[in-house]
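Researcher: Quick test of sequence recovery. Tokens follow.
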């Protein structure tokens, strides 16, 4: 799939990531409507990760401008009480939003079809620790987008086209083909680092990288709910299918040059063989994958 990823993500201020051509928006922080402009009308699904203000405060204006024809669908962690409160407010303040926008609380394992053979899967992360919620509840989610394709079973690989056509008429499809699942993109949202396998072995990973070093990451308990550039790049080096790494959600305590230098140093340290893109504090980047990477293997 030819992905077009656009977005901005600055810790404490605002995060949103638009994924074309599947009409998907990850989070909807302040300014999402202004930065996407008319492209906001193409968003069919908004997948919200958690209820921090920098990830949801743009919903009011975005829905006011882009709610039409029974869309978008807003997915959110079902155990978070903030989203029903926002729904109640927007339904009263903008009645046309109530008639179009759909809201759905979801939990670990929820699968949402985005397009034929293309699906969104939700699973929990540790940004909001379980110790702060009831057992089994999750108030912060990560998401993966995967595609299911059909592959002819090996025992039929030598058949001609007409022979395969006749076979399809005679036998159920699941006897003829295997379903091959590939994760095309994963969005970590805000979270501490996980092991590489946790992220479903994606081709494209959008991961937060709030801090540039371990000292800043662990300086306060609250900040330990995030990740650091060294940890994320080390993890990326262990992902066999990864083709692109996109980093964002950097803290404003760092300037752009500090961020670039840290990414380059860690990519060199771990011998990273894929391009790394960075959405720096205060930036909105259209079509990130067509921009100049911060790191590109030589």
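Model:
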């Amino acid at each position: 799939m030819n992905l077009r990823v656009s977005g901005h993500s600055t810790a404490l201020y605002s995060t949103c990531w638009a994924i074309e051509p599947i009409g998907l928006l990850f989070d909807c922080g302040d300014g999402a409507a202004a930065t996407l402009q008319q492209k906001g009308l193409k968003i069919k699904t908004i997948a919200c990760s958690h209820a921090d203000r920098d990830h949801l405060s743009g919903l009011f204006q975005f829905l006011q401008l882009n709610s039409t024809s029974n869309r978008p669908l807003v997915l959110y962690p079902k155990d978070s009480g903030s989203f029903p409160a926002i729904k109640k407010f927007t339904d009263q303040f903008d009645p046309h939003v109530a008639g179009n926008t759909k809201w759905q609380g979801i939990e670990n394992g929820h699968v949402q079809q985005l397009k034929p053979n293309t699906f969104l899967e939700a699973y929990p992360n540790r940004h909001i620790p379980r110790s702060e919620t009831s057992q089994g509840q999750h108030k912060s989610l990560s998401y993966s987008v995967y595609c299911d394709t059909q592959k002819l079973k090996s025992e039929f690989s030598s058949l001609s086209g007409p022979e395969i056509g006749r076979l399809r008429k005679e036998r159920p499809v699941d006897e003829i083909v295997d379903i091959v699942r590939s994760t095309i993109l994963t969005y970590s949202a805000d979270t501490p680092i996980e092991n590489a396998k946790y992220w479903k072995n994606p081709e494209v990973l959008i991961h937060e990288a709030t801090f540039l070093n371990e000292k800043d990451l662990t300086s306060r308990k609250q900040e330990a709910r995030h990740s650091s550039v060294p940890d994320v790049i080390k993890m990326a080096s262990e992902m066999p299918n990864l083709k692109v790494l996109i980093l964002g959600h950097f803290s404003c305590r760092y300037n752009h040059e500090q961020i670039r230098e840290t990414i380059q140093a860690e990519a060199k340290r771990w011998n990273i063989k894929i391009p790394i893109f960075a959405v720096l504090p205060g930036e909105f980047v259209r079509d990130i994958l067509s921009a100049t990477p911060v790191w590109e293997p030589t």
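The domain at 4-290 is CATH 3.60.15.10 (Metallo-beta-lactamase; Chain A).
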